[in-house]
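(Fold this chain)
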Amino acid sequence: MEFEFNSSPEPTLGVEIELQLVDRETRALTSAAAELIDSSGDVGWLKEELLQSTIEINSEVCADIGEAEADLGVKLEWVRERARQRGLALISAGTHPFSRWEDQEVSEDERYHRLVDKVQWPARRMLIFGLHVHVGVPDAESAIQIINHLEPWLPHLLALSASSPFWEGKDTGLASCRSKIFETLPTAGLPYRHESWKEFEQLVGALIRSEGIESIREVWWDVRPHPGFGTVEVRVCDAMPTMGENLAVAALVQALIVFLQGQINEGVTLPILHPRIVTENKWRAARYSMEGTTIVDGDGAQRPIAETMERLLEDLAPVFDRLGSAAQVPLLQRMVRGPSSYARQRRVFEKTGDTSAVVDALILEGESGQPTEA
């Protein structure tokens, strides 16, 4: 089975943010996505997801982070105002602090209902919210090589974005419980490594023919090629409370992919860690976020994630300059040094003992655009 890859000569940027719809009085999630979309008219950038308490805002194909910021800023305020008119608020985080998956309605889309019928409990509890970043790449073979070399960095991107310490009103002890919930789907988690695009096509073709998946859209890896868009799509990140944080991470993803593409083109040998080490590193990122360490070589040497990320930002400085996203670096540095969203949420709960207060803090952060301290 062959999939045409629509090449992108430039490292274009596309950003998708899954947002939570909450009732302003109860602070609970509410199944209002269909109503909100219907009332908004025919806008292709506003989409339903599996559960009706989720709404996704998509950017246009953008040349740089400045275009993405302008595009998404207008769209977010447009949706926020229509939500406000219905007594709703938008919040952005990997999970809701207390709402239960059992109380959510599945969207009226035949594909989603088939998925729930097939996968059952793991699909029903997908009450999670992520940030997806698309970066244009020149061809299918480049996409495969970039994914192979990006894999060791996925734990670091997860650590930076971690914003889901709570699940159904309880502190999980994790920085990102979203990542562990998502991994229960049969085609989610870290990617497989492929030597070529043909090998990837053979795998996806086998999964489709065997009815493991319906289409390539159900390959839900933490990073995957998107042949229709001609991109590498990074899906490992939690959604974060402020637009600034989401955009900063999107800029980092774009710069990292451009950097890796350049290294590959120059024939530079890049380190590729054993898949089990990457799995261990992803677990550490989900557990400890920027306060943890990762294994950096085959001998088991460790380094603090924050230290590794600060060094990465230094290495990427010329790329940020070239892409016009250098203005995002100070915020990325602050995010590395903390406190991360998961820690801010946890501090609010420790101070108040109330997960509703955590929702209030998330609403405030989203509407003000500024992280708050408990």
About this structure: The mean pLDDT is 96. The radius of gyration is 20 Å.
